[in-house]
Specification:
The structure is a homodimer.
Chain A lengths: L5 E4 L5 H9 L9 H13 L1 E3 L2 E2 L1 E8 L2 E12 L2 H4 L1 E10 L8 H14 L4 E6 L4 H6 L3 E9 L1
Catalytic activity (chains A, B): D-glucosamine 6-phosphate + acetyl-CoA = N-acetyl-D-glucosamine 6-phosphate + CoA + H(+)
Keywords (chains A, B): Acyltransferase, Transferase
GO molecular function (chains A, B): glucosamine 6-phosphate N-acetyltransferase activity
Chain lengths: ~150, ~150
């Protein structure tokens, strides 16, 4: 990890910091402390295998403040011999901590965690971020389509 | 549904048919009946909300045989007011049943199911399938990146 920063799973005390960091990425909307706690409880108790959690939400901290956050979700499939696939989601770096390679550190951490269990890790990004993810070891695999 | 065909959740009796259909899509590898049953059990018991299953694996049947299969996975996020996102995965039509709009029927079913609960449904596809998904109401949202 980058000097001065540390990384660990999201905890309930991270409520404000995680919501603030995610606001740099997209609309967070109204999320009460009770809703946050219920979501963290869900993430902490959902298993994808008897001894493996399904959700791996992380924060990078500096001076006990949230500087970045990101999620690895593990999916259980039939293909590839009942294989697991990791999905990296909702990578956000707080505006005050941008330009310090925290995104890279977070992606490297979640990718290593995913590849320890999954036959591949995938993520969706804007075309403008393709070069960044290529530096992290990713390659283009397809097109993300959405229906709202 | 297309006349002569029906749709329902995957059941344990679909073992051979689902594996055969998925083989038209990608490598299934060695999946024993016991592994299939354990995976279906997991899909049937994992909750994303107290009253909502996380995995929605479906088959289209004709004469009690699997003609197509596909999955909707629901993810629980913080963004968008603790919103849910649907991921469509592993859409496969058996070679004997191709050209009969089963892919379209399956996507429409899984999309409706997803949008009943989620603020968006997403999927990754090859560039060659973009026009098909646009006909299903999807639009391009980004680039899929993978790390193996």
């Amino acid at each position: 990890m980058i000097p001065g920063y540390s990384i660990r799973r999201v905890e309930k005390q991270d409520y404000k910091g995680v919501c603030e960091a995610l606001n740099a990425l997209t609309t967070v909307g109204e999320v009460s402390k009770a809703q946050f706690d219920a979501t963290v409880d869900h993430w902490n108790h959902s298993l994808v295998l008897p001894n493996l959690l399904q959700y791996h939400p992380y924060v990078i901290l500096k001076d006990n403040q949230v500087a970045a956050t990101g999620m690895l979700l593990i999916e259980r499939k039939l293909i590839h011999g009942c294989g697991l696939v990791g999905h990296i989601e909702d990578i956000a770096v707080s505006p005050r901590h941008q330009g310090k390679q925290l995104g890279r550190a977070l992606i490297d951490h979640l990718t290593s965690l995913g590849l320890a269990h999954c036959y591949k890790v995938i993520l969706d990004c804007d075309e403008s971020n393709v070069k960044f993810y290529e530096k992290c070891g990713y390659s283009k695999a397809g097109v993300e389509m959405q229906h709202r």
